[in-house]
Amino acid sequence: MRVDGILLLNKPTGISSNSALQKTKRLLKADKAGHTGCLDPLASGMLPICLGEATKFSRFFIEEDKQYTVEVRLGITTTTGDGEGEIVTSQPVPVFDRAEIEAILERFTGTQTQIPPMYSAVKHNGQPLYKLARRGIEIPRKSRTITIHELVLTHCEHETFMMTVTCSKGTYIRTLVEDIGKVLGCGAYVKMLHRLWVAPFQRHEMISLEQLLDYNDSADIPLLSLQTILSQLLPSITLEPEAAFKLCRGQVIPYEHEKAIGDVMLLDPLGEFIGIGEIATNQLVPKRLLAKTSENKECVSV
Questions:
Q1: Of the N and C termini of the chain, which has fewer Cβ atoms inside 10 Å?
Q2: Where are the catalytic residues (predicted)?
């Protein structure tokens, strides 16, 4: 049986995102699989995995916001910005009250620039930075624009505090924590990191690798359909039979619209999802289509 859809894996700590992906792919016997955003081995939490035909549409999910719960250890900095690196500095932690930390966190909300850490998957001349970092090589990195939508302090002790971070794609929590530590004047690193959700999957439950093992039939595994998820991100168009026929063969069709509105979900006359198109001036262009739209109707992948 072909496996198509999106699985929200609750990735455990101690394994890479790719390792978790490959284990899921084997357990579900999927032909194709890909995830929509890396989590470090130290981190746990939501890792959306696209299976089968869903891999064609993964790019529509990678630009979305994310939310994390983070435990911050004060007074220590490490080479990697988390507990896996070697200690670089260690110093006594001043006594901070809750209001002081909340005031600092408030300064880090909003749109800002952030420089990716050396221990990251960002590539330089085709090589991940973390491989260079392990050899003691430091490369200048360009800053990136990110947005921290909200920082909420949830628990506070002398040397540690917990916070919830809601942020844009491309935000490095380790860098954020290091920057907070600099402002506090004592340094800091990420002691624990758990991703609570990735938009648009906030209202959907995750499933663990252990739970996947309990399923005897992959057909019983709770996969999310592309149509369900993409309908939260894009407007849709229900096509007439002739228009659906032509689009499924990669043809551009006339489409009257006052202005270009970008990407749209394409639905056949029965309301079934067949792919993504783009409305341009007076035409509808197929961009990414399913291999099959119904039992006896083939659709060419564009």
A1: N
A2: 40 (nucleophile)
In eight-state DSSP terms, residue 135 is T
In one-letter notation, the amino acid at residue 15 is I
Structure tokens belonging to residue 24: 């899921």
For 201-235, write each residue's pLDDT tens digit: 999 999 999 999 888 776 678 899 999 999 999 99
Pick the CATH number of 235-298 from 2.60.40.1180, 1.10.10.10, 3.20.20.100, 2.30.130.10: 2.30.130.10
Q: What is the mean pLDDT of residues 185-195?
A: 97
Spatial distance between the Cα atoms of 124 and 107, rounded to a whole number of angstroms? 31
In the chain, where are the structural domains located?
5-64+200-227, 69-186, 235-298
Q: Which fold has domain 69-186?
A: Pseudouridine synthase (3.30.2350)
Active site residues: 40
Residue with tokens 């670089």: 88
pLDDT of residue 288: 92
Question: What is the chain's mean pLDDT, rounded?
Answer: 90
DSSP state of 111: E
User: In terms of DSSP bridges, do strands 76-78 and 87-90 run parallel, antiparallel, or are they unpaired?
Assistant: antiparallel
Burial of 231 per CB tally in 10 Å (0-12, 13-18, 19+): middle
**Same fold for the pair 5-64+200-227 and 235-298:** no
What topology does CATH give the domain 5-64+200-227? Pseudouridine synthase (3.30.2350)
Residue 296 burial (10 A CB sphere; 0-12, 13-18, 19+): exposed
